[in-house]
Automatic annotation (TrEMBL):
It holds the Pfam family LysR_substrate. The keyword DNA-binding applies. This is Transcriptional regulator. It comes from Sinisalibacter lacisalsi. SUPFAM superfamilies: Periplasmic binding protein-like II (SSF53850), Winged helix' DNA-binding domain (SSF46785). Signal peptide: none annotated. The lineage of its organism: Bacteria, Pseudomonadati, Pseudomonadota, Alphaproteobacteria, Rhodobacterales. Keywords: DNA-binding, Transcription, Transcription regulation.
Length: 300
């Protein structure tokens, strides 16, 4: 008996992982429940293994299914591109692209240009911290991400868009907003506001503080840049941010430099290597490179 999976069987497995049950997967695929059940039984019998844990009518993907899911989604996405290429000559007149970003200040100009260039593509964008975006990327839930990390991840296909200094965000009228760069001894006397633990900026700042032997005091952790800015304006403390996130002409907040060369991070556009050849992802990277060629080394 052949051990080659069919495209239909890959679609069934992906739908079962996503829907969590035979009935829901059948509705999603537009086929009958017996058809889905039969395909799953054939796959499991053929390979003499189980791909799901059964809990009543629920099917919970096991470790094998979880490991295969990103590859199945990549295979289905590639097949979808082949079909689109045949139908629409790969002009990106239709289709979708799902991306994630951690810093809207750096992303929106590029995203706006992409949507204008490819109006037929449906773009889905979600804002989350770097650590959360990497989990979504490896789970196959987004095709590309904008992340803040210290150096390129060799496991990803990535493009560095800019380098940024980590700074403190202060109220414009705060005495420190007009002074010299701060050392760690100065920072240890302040109350700091941070993003959530999965934030790339926070992880780099905390690592630099540990390396410097600094005991910093955190008064508040928040889940978005906008809420941190509001907390800074309210006088709760100084926020940990990237210099490029703060508009120099912002009338309410200002960047306070820190004297530590380790506090530099990169902002990258990244995807899984197997997704780099997809037409929407490739077009997104091409447009990002075009933006870079027209910008200064530090700005997208």
């Amino acid at each position: 008996m052949t051990k080659n999976l069919t495209l239909t069987q890959i679609r069934v497995l992906e739908a079962l992982c996503r829907a969590g049950g035979v009935g829901a997967a059948a509705r999603d695929l537009g086929v009958s429940q017996p058809t889905v059940s039969a395909q799953l039984r054939q796959i499991e019998d053929r390979y003499a293994l189980r791909l799901f844990q059964r809990e009543g009518h629920r099917l919970i993907p096991n470790a094998v299914s979880h490991a295969l899911l990103p590859r199945m989604r990549a295979a289905l996405a590639l097949m979808s591109e082949i079909e689109t290429t045949l139908d629409r000559t790969s002009t990106l007149e239709a289709g979708r692209l799902s991306i994630g970003y951690s810093t809207h200040q750096f992303v929106m100009p590029l995203l706006s240009d992409f949507i204008t260039t490819y109006p037929g593509l449906r773009v889905e964008a979600r804002s989350q911290a770097t650590g959360d975006l990497l989990r979504l990327l490896h789970a196959g839930e987004v095709e590309a991400v904008f992340i803040t990390i210290s150096r390129p991840d060799p496991a990803l296909h990535s493009l560095e868009l800019r380098r940024e200094r980590i700074i403190l965000m202060a109220r414009r009228d705060h005495p420190l907003s007009h002074g010299d760069p701060l050392g760690w001894d100065d920072i240890a006397r302040l109350g700091l506001i941070r993003r959530e633990p999965s934030s790339g900026t926070r992880m780099m700042f905390d690592a630099a503080a540990v390396a410097a032997g600094a005991r910093v005091r955190h008064v508040l952790d928040l889940g978005s840049w906008e809420s941190m800015r509001a907390a800074v304006i309210a006088g709760i403390g100084l926020g940990v941010a990237m210099e490029g996130e703060i508009d120099p002409d912002d009338p309410q907040v200002a960047a306070v430099p820190i004297r530590d060369p380790a506090l530099e991070v990169g902002h990258y556009l990244a995807c899984l290597p197997e997704m780099a050849g997809l037409a929407p992802v490739r077009a997104f990277f091409d447009l990002a490179r075009a933006h870079l060629s027209k910008s200064t080394p530090a700005k997208l």
